[in-house]
Amino acid sequence: MAATVSAPLNAEPANPEEHKDNNLPPKSYADAVEEEAPAAGTNESKATNGVMVSNGSNGTNGTGSGKALVLRIVNTGAPDAKEKEEGKGERPLVERQESQREYTATGLDDTPRTPPRNKHRKVGSKSSNSSLDKGPSNENNKSNGDDKPLKESKVKDDDGNTIVFEKFKEKKNGTKLVSIKLDSSFEKHTHESQKDALSRRKEDGLASGRKAGQRWERSAIRWAPMNIPLQRRLQTLVVLWHTLCIALCVSTFFFLCAIPLFWPLLIPYMLYCMLSTASTSGTLSHRSEFLRSSPVWSLFASYFPARLHRTQELPPTRKYIFGYHPHGIISLGAFAAFATESLGFGQLFPGIKNTLLTLDSNFRIPIYRDYALAMGIASVSRESCENLLSKGGANKEGMGRGITIVIGGARESLDAQPHQLRLVLKRRKGFVKMAIRTGADLVPVLAFGENDLYDQLQPDSHPKIHKFQLLVKKLLGFTIPLFHARGIFNYDVGLMPYRRPLNIVVGRPIRVMQNSQPGQEEIDRVHEEYIQELETIWHTWKDTFANDRKEELSIVE
């Protein structure tokens, strides 16, 4: 028995062009839907891309059981002929790109649908949106032109000013933008008004605080470079040792006292320091020529540098008292010239054994006293001077001996100002009396640059501090100048002396006749001759060694 067929085997083509080729009347997809559907329960239907495919349950296409394959056309959303005529269903043509998930069928309008307007589309990946980037938006951009403004429109406001509107079209979403084009006169007026406002603010004045770091700029510390030659480093080390010698010796002594193991040695040593007369005996038994002529002191003298000058030879058959001026802060020139052989004292004055004198209290300082005695330094006491000038020498009576006294003392150190030379000498006549009693010739010595090695407070600008220093000098016999100079690694702050030239000039000796009981007139006469010779040295060599002086030589007190 033949199977019942619900639809003709040769269905009408759905494509309008095929209708026209077969001389068939036009037919829409809606008419195809109205055709009779297959009997229920007889066929299984399967939809594929808008085509309903129905298969017989037990047969094949026209053979076997007689069941046939039926194609059912469903509505795919394509516009019909009437809508095309009215122009309602026109859509822009889009270049078709195949996808693995799509299946095509003959006679179907498979062009992609345009997304509805005024709705947001979900942003996908680059691969899924690549076809959209080439879609209608690109065609619209081409038709309108990229980056080209649309026609300008001008509107006048109430004041008669013309406002120009510019219309732009954005590249990505096709949104039309409208902006206002400012008039050139308006921009010029705005710029001039801003400049006028700035000028008025400047005319009103600006109150500012003090500049940060201004004091540091005025008092900047100049640091020494790292590439200083080794010789200069050694010079600084030797001068540092001499400057801090007393402090280092005292510190070492107290450190040893803190160790009980050294007590059996320190107790006898302290008794020896208190009872010893080596500094006043005049025998110079602790003097070490090896230490005095050590090359270390050549570094000390070259630090400034210091030079010793002789105006006249001194015969070794006489004995001498060298008066050193000025005292300065620490009398560094006296130490270099008369306590060491760094400046060649033995070569300038052969046959004369000189001894530098200092305060007797320095020989009560442990460890330092032994160092001073080894350098040939002795006490400045009256006993020590008489013993040095009356004992020893070639004739055992002091011939060929010499002593060096810093005449001004601690009082003169308070007047040690750079580029000035004020000597405390008018009432200092004890050394003259000593010279007459021992028969020693007086030799004035003037050190140019001794006062330039340190800076200290001015007595005129700080009178109360100056009075306190004088009180300390009266009570203790010494004073403490408030001085400063340079440091070890800088040039502005510290206790190291400045590197400034130091020229020591030895003047003409003043011949003195020995008299065990000199009168006051004789003392005053020799004292006057001594001052005159000292002034002669100043006037002769001041233009050579004191070009930057602020005042002339003055003798006070």
Radius of gyration: 59 Å
Residue stretches low in confidence (pLDDT < 50, at least 5 long) are: 1-8, 35-71, 98-106, 123-149
> Mean of residue pLDDT?
77
Amount of helix: 25-40%
Distance between the termini: 162 Å
Structural class: alpha/beta
**Biggest β-sheet description:** 7 strands, mixed
Based on CA inertia axes, which overall geometry fits?
elongated
Note the total helix count: 20
| Overall strand count | 17
Strand content: 5-15%
Strand order of the largest sheet: 7-16-13-8-11-9-10
Concise account of the structure shown:
The protein has 557 residues and is an alpha/beta fold.
List keywords for this structure.
elongated, 17 strands, three-stranded antiparallel sheet, 20 helices, 34% helix, 557 residues, alpha/beta
How does this model look, in words?
The chain has helices spanning 16-21, 29-33, 81-86, 130-133, 136-144, 184-204, 214-218, 230-243, 245-257, 263-275, 289-292, 296-302, 332-339, 345-348, 368-374, 382-390, 409-413, 430-438, 463-476, 520-545, and strands at residues 43-48, 51-56, 70-73, 153-156, 162-169, 176-181, 306-310, 320-325, 353-358, 378-379, 401-406, 422-424, 441-448, 455-456, 483-484, 502-506, 554-556. Residues 1-8, 35-71, 98-106 and 123-149 have low confidence and may be disordered. 34% of the residues lie in helices and 15% in strands. The chain contains 20 helices and 17 strands. It has a 7-stranded mixed β-sheet, sandwiched between helices. The chain starts with 15 loop residues before the first helix and ends with a strand. It has 557 residues and is of the alpha/beta class.
